[in-house]
Amino acid sequence: MTDSAELLHKHSFVELGARQRAKALLDAGTFRELLDPFQRVMSPWLSRQGVVPQADDGVIIAKGSIDGLPVVIGAIEGAFQGGSLGEVGGAKLAGALELAAEDNRNGIPTRAVLLLETGGVRLQEANLGLAAIADVHAAIVDLRQYQPVIGVVAGSVGCFGGMSIAAGLCSYLLVTQEARLGLNGPQVIEQEAGLEEYDSRDRPFIWSLTGGEQRFATGLVDRYAEDDVAQIRQQVSALLKQGLPAQQRSTQAELFLQRLARLDAGPQIEPSVVRDLYQGERS
Amino acid sequence: MSAYSLRGLNWFNALSAGAKAVEGLPASLKVADGFLGEQAVRFIAVVADPDNRFVRARHGEVGLLEGWGLAKAVDEVITADQDKPQKRALIAIVDVPSQAYGRREEALGIHQALAGAADSYARARLAGHAVIGLLVGKAMSGAFLAHGYQANRLIALRDPGVMVHAMGKASAARVTLRSVEELEALAASVPPMAYDIDSYASLGLLWETLSVEQIEQPSANDLARVAECLTLAIGDVAAKGRDLSGRLGATNRTASSQVRQLLRAQW
C-alpha cells in the first residue's frame, strides 16, 4: 500500500471521544450503555461551584463483546474536566468493575477494558474522587483474580494521579506514542519541586520520561500500538485472549526493589538510565 | 519543631512496644510484628528518612522505595499466613504528607510502585487479613491510596493535623485556577473539598473517630483507647466481611450508592 492509501485507511483512535472509542472496540451491534446521558445522573457537587456538569459525568460504561468475549468497558472522557474523576464518574467505574467481579463469582466470565484519559481526582470533588479511586483499585484487584483487566492509554490527556495507580494495577496496559503515564502531572511537580526538577512546558522532556514509547521500552506497559482503531482493537482482543498474566506487574515488589538498589540515585536521571535498569536486554 | 512530622513514628513506637521489628525493608518503613490483646498483628508506618537515597522522599513522602517496600512488607504476611486459619491483622499507621514529587520518581514509575502497595493491601484484604488504617496525621492523595486507603476500616484521631485530601492547597489552587483563599472559601461549603477531619467524616468513609490527649506523643490513656478501638475494628471486620461496602451510606455520599444501584439494575 502506498503511504497516502495507508493514511486513508487509518482511523485515529485518539481523535475519538470516549463513547466512540468504546463503540469502536466492541463487536458491531453489541454496544449497550449503562447509565447513559439521558438518565442524567450528574455530579451533585459541580454546579454549586460554578462548573457546568455533564449528563454522563465524563464516564461511559458500556457492555458488549469483543470477538465474542463478554466485556464491560469503562471509558473516561478526557474532554470533560480533563477526564477527572468525581463522585459519580468514579462510582460508575468502581461499580461496573465490582459487578464484573460478581459476574465471575456467578460463572459469567466478564472481562473489563478501561480507556484511561484522566488527570486523576477531580479537585472540585476532591475527597469523594479519591475515595472512588480507592474503590476502583479494590475492584480491579478483585476482578483480576478471575479475568484480565486491560488498560488502554491512547492519549491525548494521558493517565495521571490515582488513576495511574489504577493503570499500574491492570493486568495489561496498551499505549500509543501520544500517551503519557505518570503519577504526578507536570504542573504539580513543577509547583512542588521547582522548574529545575521538572519543566512542565518542556513537552519533549516530559514525553521522553513518561510517554508511551518510553513506558513500552522500559517494560512498564505491555503493548505499543499506532493510533489506529483497527490496530488497537486487534491488540485489545489479543490481550483478552491471552487470559491472566503469569504474574501481575504490580505484584513484583522484589524485582523492582532489586532494580532500584542497583541505581545510583545521586545524579539526575535520564530516560536511557531507566531503559537500561528496567529492560537492559531489550533497549 | 522538626521539618517533618514525627507522629507516625511516635504512634508506631507506642503501639509496637514489645513487638518484633521486621528487617530487610527501606529505612523509611517501620514494620513490626506484635499483638493487640490476643490478636497477632503487623504494624506498618511510613516515616521520614532524612538520608533517603531519593532526595524527593526525605520527609515521609511515599516514593519508589516506600511503595515497593510496603508491598513487600504486606506480601510477606500474606505468604507466611497462607495456610493459617488465623490471619495476622495489618495496622497501617498513616502520617503521610504526600507522594514524592520528582523527576526520578516519574521516570522510574512511581505510579507502579504505589500500585504495588495498593495491590498488596487489597490482596491481603481478599485473603482474609483485617486491614485497619489509623490516621494520626496527614493522609494525602497518592500516598494515602498506597498506604491506608485499601483498609477494611479507617480510624482517624480528632485533631486539626489529621487531614485527608487529594492535593495540597497551593497546587490544588493552581490546577483549578483559583486563589488559595477562594479554595478555602469553597471548602467551607463543599464537604468533599474540605481538609478537616470532621468534613471528611461526614462522607462516611471513617469507621470511627477518636479524641486523644496527646496527638504528637501518645499518653498511656491514648494508647489504651486506640489499641482498644483497633481491636474492635478487627472484630468488626471478622463479623462483617472483607469488602469496602461499609464506606457507603452517608448522606454526603448518596450518589455513590445511587450509581451502584442503577448499574446493578441495568447490568
UniProtKB/TrEMBL annotation, chain A:
It holds the Pfam family Carboxyl_trans. Residues 1-254 form the CoA carboxyltransferase N-terminal domain. Transmembrane segments: none annotated. The keyword Lipid biosynthesis does not apply. InterPro entries: AcCoA_carboxyl_beta (IPR034733), ClpP/crotonase-like_dom_sf (IPR029045), COA_CT_N (IPR011762), Malonate_beta (IPR017556). Keywords: Transferase. The keyword Cell membrane does not apply. NCBIfam families: malonate_beta (TIGR03133), PRK07189.1 (NF005530). This is Malonate decarboxylase beta subunit. It comes from Pseudomonas mohnii.
